[in-house]
TrEMBL record:
Pfam families: Peptidase_S26. GO terms for molecular function: signal peptidase activity. This is Signal peptidase I. It comes from Pseudonocardia acidicola. Belongs to the peptidase S26 family.
Amino acid sequence: MAVVTALVLARLLGFEPVRIPSDSMAPTLIRGDQVVLDHRAFIPARGDLVAFADPTGAAEDGLVVKRVAAVAGDQVGLEDGVLVVNGAPVVEPYADQSRLDGVYLGPLTVPPGRLFVLGDNRGDSVDSRQFGPIDADSVVGRIHLRLFPSPGPL
């Protein structure tokens, strides 16, 4: 009964448990991980893990989780697999470094009201490299806590 009460209270406060359906965010999140989706209002920033409406329509539940790589006004690109934002390489300890080599993109400027999102597992992620920058209004929340299998902040 206490677990049910806690879940109902969490949803009322704007939190929702979500299961990760793919390995596109590995090693940060892997298929089957349970995370907390925080629906409370926020302004997405570089590095945030966000959930948004799937622009491809392929996701089971209609949502996709990716990392914000660049925000409106940023110039973003990939140079030999290295993320470059506003002319500076970005250190990405969360990304699967074994899959970053030999990829080039951009640079492009993120339009107003949009976000450039990437999966941490670049070799197994459909993200802004394919569907372009997403509408910031499509973001339904952010993820900063794993529930299962190893609980804790991300």
